[in-house]
Amino acid sequence: MELQLCDVWRKLLGRTDVGIHDDFFSLGGHSLLAIRLTVEVRRLFQVDLSAADLLSAATVAELAEIIRRGSTESRGQLVRIQAGTGDSPVYALPPVSGTVLLYPPVARAMGTDQPFWAVQSVGLQPGETPLGSIEEIADAFIEQLRTVHPEGAEWNLIGYSMGGLLAYETARRLTARGERVGLVGLLDTRITVSPSGDPDFALRALLWRGLKLELDIDWLRGLPPEERAAVLVERAVAAGTMPADFDADRLRRMIDMYQFNLDALAAYEVKPYDGTVTVFRVTDRSMEDGTLPEDLGWSAVAARTVVCDVPGNHFTMIEPGQVEVLGRRLREQLAAGRVQEGTPA
């Protein structure tokens, strides 16, 4: 089984030097290759892997163990991305897509000794019903994270884009319960995230960022949901941005997840937080309209706001070549918070 998995990895990653203890993401794996890997595992071993499975078992040896069992010991939406050696974990909350596959490079950029967990949105797996509000989502995440959080440790929360709003609301709710909150890291998160009145924002985001397709939105909107998903799968497979046997039902859940999260954002009212938030602000602002404040508006609601510049734009800040600086800045802010608390960094 391990030999077969190594062979799959070599083909997907275009490498010859794959060992059973190598990390998929450290070898150059990314979200699209992760999807292709789950498809190959299903074809070879008739086992369905989730993103959580892959992130929790990112080596061939660990993955083989999951396949032998036929399933994982479920932690719900909770995913351990990096075990680390410290006693102060970082918890990453999902962006509007609901997935957490963007976070492994961030975790590694912080250093392999940093414990790092992530939580994906409810609704991505078959049979799950998405939650209806940011407050509900934050409460559900706290219950998930509590199962692994070290007793007495401070809570360090980060989130990319919409995930920053989830990190903020989670921090508010933990503080209200008397818990110690450390880093609240907002990765280029605006205080209000609006779909700008565009009813097709979710579909456009999936098309351009996920599938990298340019199709007529009006035409797609006119198709029944089942047919729309089938068309998108067909076009994405032809474009090489989706594996050949990716199923339309999974894609439909992804589109729905975008929309559920956008609806929750539209209804969310940001309330004051009696603590510090750290905004990781991109230096390439060519995608912005030029009217955004330096702190993206957070000083209006947080007791203290720290702004850290990081290279790239909203999308490239988490990609190789830029993410390394982001990881370093996150680690610096984590250490700075410990010093303020009187804990050795």
Text of the CATH class of the largest domain: Alpha Beta
Task: Supply the number of structural domains.
Answer: 3
Spatial ordering of strands, largest sheet = 1-3-2-4-5-6-7
For the record, the CATH architecture of the largest domain stands as 3-Layer(aba) Sandwich
Distance between the termini: 42 Å
**Which range best describes the helical content: under 10%, 10-25%, 25-40%, 40-55%, 55-70% or over 70%?**
40-55%
Structure description:
- It is a single chain.
- With 345 residues, the chain is of the alpha/beta class.
- The protein folds into 3 domains: 1-74, ACP-like (Non-ribosomal Peptide Synthetase Peptidyl Carrier Protein, Chain A, Orthogonal Bundle); 76-192 and 270-345, 3-Layer(aba) Sandwich (Rossmann fold); 201-265.
- It contains 12 helices and 7 strands.
- Helix 5 crosses helix 12, helix 6 (134-146) crosses helix 7 (162-176) and helix 8 packs across helix 11 (248-267).
- The termini are far apart.
- The relative contact order is 0.11.
- The model has no long low-confidence stretch (mean pLDDT 84).
- Residues 1-71 form the Carrier domain.
- This is Peptide synthase or polyketide synthase.
- GO terms for molecular function: phosphopantetheine binding.
- InterPro entries: AB_hydrolase_fold, ACP-like_sf, PKS_PP-bd, PP-bd_ACP, Ppantetheine_attach_site, TesA-like, Thioesterase.
